[in-house]
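Tokens in:
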């Protein structure tokens, strides 16, 4: 007899999230010892409590308000928005992708 938990999908890891983002067709994502970068700007990195991502301030505030994320001080890089830590690995792929898109966009008023 098989247990239903035998068929439960594996939780994402930082490595699996990185692998997916490195397949980006624009070839603009890189992985270094500090984390994931787009156009040489850090947008996501793992820490001992989860995945830390740089998101638009409104989005970060919404996630914090709903208990999905917690604020993190920007110690590694100057954020474009706000750094937040995502504890639940199930949310990592979606929010890392959002951070990639957000940080990878040209700054307002600059040429793309």
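Residues out:
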């Amino acid at each position: 007899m098989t247990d239903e938990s035998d068929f439960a999908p594996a939780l994402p890891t930082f490595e699996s999230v990185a692998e997916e983002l490195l397949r980006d067709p624009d070839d603009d994502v890189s992985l270094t010892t500090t984390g994931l970068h787009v156009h040489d700007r850090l947008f996501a990195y793992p820490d001992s409590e989860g995945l830390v991502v740089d998101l638009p301030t409104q989005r970060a505030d919404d996630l914090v308000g709903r208990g999905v994320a917690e604020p993190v001080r920007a110690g590694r890089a100057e954020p474009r928005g706000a750094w937040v830590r995502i504890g639940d690995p199930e949310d990592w792929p979606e929010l890392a992708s959002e951070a990639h898109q957000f940080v990878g966009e040209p700054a307002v008023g600059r040429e793309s």
